[in-house]
Write a structure and sequence with these properties.
Helix content is about 45%, strand content about 0%. The protein is mainly alpha-helical and about 190 residues long.
Length: about 190
């Protein structure tokens, strides 16, 4: 930031210099917040949500819950106790709760209806490709081959990365793939 303001000092007269530096830093801060929000949005599939598929008769069940708790099918949920009763009844019926991060967005019964009629898919985007038909010019290798000099027959045990170890760090893949620790010749 200091180098940018130093650069601006030479371009802008001194009276407007401090304002320009502040404006630049404010824009930079705003772009950082936007990039963090975009990153969280892009990684939303990594959040710990349970998968949910609404049942066939979800509309009827929601209408029944609204009638029993509120007396009508459409209402404003202005009181916190009423909102709690309705959401608790919905949770018991569907075994699917509203996350804390979404509670402030639910203000009416229509918001509850939208939430409980929306399907939640928690698969990683790579796994979603397995269930769709890809174009003929796209090929995805789901189970990749990991190099190990003792078992590699394609290249005769010669690695593309000589004198380097291939360490498997994930708990899931330690069982599936064998790691290889390179030992120097002099040992």
């Amino acid at each position: 930031m200091a180098t940018t303001c130093y650069f601006l000092q030479h371009l802008i007269p001194s009276s407007a210099n401090s304002m320009a530096c502040g404006l630049y830093q404010a824009r930079r801060f705003a772009s950082t917040i936007e990039s963090i929000a975009k990153s969280l949005k892009d990684r939303s599939y990594l959040r710990p949500h349970k998968p949910y598929t609404p049942p066939e008769d979800a509309e009827k069940k929601l209408d029944g819950i609204f009638e029993s708790q509120l007396g009508s099918n459409s209402a404003q949920l202005s009181n916190g106790r009423i909102k709690f009763k309705v959401l608790t009844a919905c949770f018991k019926e569907f075994n699917h709760g509203v996350p804390n991060s979404k509670l402030h967005e639910i203000l009416t019964t229509d918001d509850i209806r939208d939430f409980y009629l929306q399907e939640i898919d928690t698969r990683v985007p790579l796994d979603k490709f397995k269930s769709i038909e890809l174009p003929p010019n796209v090929s995805i290798q789901y189970d990749y081959h990991r190099f190990h000099p003792d078992t590699d027959t394609m290249h005769g045990g010669i690695s593309a990365f000589p004198r380097r170890s291939t360490i498997v760090t994930g708990l899931k893949y330690k069982k599936k793939y064998a790691g290889y620790n390179y030992k120097p010749i002099w040992h």
